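Appendix B, record 7
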Amino acid sequence: MYSLLIDCSHHRNFIGLFQTKKEWIAGQYFEGFPLEALSSQIKALFNTCSIEKTAIDHFYTPSNPGSQLGIRLTQIFVQSWIKTLCPSAQWTQYNGLYMSARLLADKKNSADQPDYIITEKGRMAWSTLCMDSGFFLTPKIRVLDSSTVGNFSGTVYYLPQVKRWQAPPCPVLEIDYAPEQFLKFFEDLDNDNFDSAHLCEPETEYAKWHAPNLNN
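Structure tokens (predicted):
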């Protein structure tokens, strides 16, 4: 059986198939609005790999942050897929800010003071994550105003959203969103000691959208 990642939360959309959490079978970025492009991209990916859509037993999608429309459309797409094709499939939703922080921590040396990663939270605030010694298992995303973020010490990494509502209030290192590199961190999300309580954000109500017929 296979796992499928669908991430339409940022500037570029990404889909990928894998069997283990170490290597992709196939994956690709694509441009365009998910409502219009996702179905055809999924179809092309499965045709390339000669894999049936009913063979998926685990889905991975983002819950935050990013384009709430893209995230919501992806969620509806997966809900329809599970209901019609893979009723026993599991579904894991991850936080893209946390996963991006894991990538940064994986590539950097330890420092005397913790670094931060930030991204826009609407027009007036910032979602922030302190990359301290305990954030692997107990990450805490906090929503802070610009004046507070402006006083951060250490290196501040900035993950830009599709809509840049405001300039970062402090010197930052801008990073790209790279879901194709999240694969090796998925096992940690299943760790019994992993506390995701502070990664969740309130849901927003959206107009109802009907997913396409996945059997075509």
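Remarks on this record: Residues 9 and 66 are 5 Å apart (CA to CA). Confidence is low (pLDDT under 50) at residues 202-208.
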